[in-house]
Amino acid sequence: VMPEIDGKVEFKNVSFSYEEDGEIILKDMNFEVQPGETIAFVGATGAGKSTIINLMTRFYDIDKGDILIDDIDIQGVKIASLRKQIGVMMQDTFIFSGSIADNIRYGNLEATREDIEEAAKMVYADSFIREMENGYDTEVNERGSRLSVGQRQLISFARTILSDPKILILDEATSSIDTQTEILIQKATQAVLKGRTSFVIAHRLSTIRNADRIMVLEAGEIIETGSHEEL
Ligand code: ATP
Ligand code: MG
């Protein structure tokens, strides 16, 4: 079991291919990320952004090198306890059949209604939820058909705030949303990244601008790194 972590993440000479003797997808990758830092990954399709995430969460094991969290080699950590430390927000938000409150609570069974509402407020979801017929008790189905794409994202942000992972992976959605919701999502994104070590596969210019560091990937290598002003 991993103890309470600070959230430092290191890649040391990491090389990886999906198939044995196959194409090398990540080539001797090295970086160190400090607790609380926000990293934006940018790069063309196939550059290796998702692969980095797959390795950090141990959906695949690396061939060469080490990935360390707080100086602990993740190879020696139980996958379940590793994933407890890492919050992952993928592009399509997972909504299940139940109330809005249940959807925010998700695995955090000990969370009170107050905690849930607090989390929703932090990501600017509280006001649209209150406007629904039964507020936090409004029932939604798996397809989340009563929620807009942007609202679904805000729910998933609230869920993440509640579970409070030290390390966060965010694969930013590309779907187009109206300007009003876009502004909310931008603010909510900053709220959810705050205080965590965050890796964002970034599609929003605002996220890239706000990142502490941008890593530009090309064919499995980091070809540039720096802040938005530096690059
Ligand atoms: P995108 O912007 O399209 O999501 P990406 O930067 O996330 O691209 P990856 O998904 O990391 O790129 O892919 C990197 C390389 O690895 C690509 O050449 C891709 O074809 C290959 N690849 C990805 N997943 C697999 C897999 N499961 N098996 C074999 N090859 C894979
Ligand atoms: Mg990808």
Automatic annotation (TrEMBL):
UniProt-annotated location(s): Cell membrane
Q: Which residues form the ABC transporter domain?
A: 9-231
Protein name, UniProt field: ATP-binding cassette, subfamily B
Organism annotation: Halanaerobium kushneri
What part of the entire protein does this chain span? 343 to 573 of 592
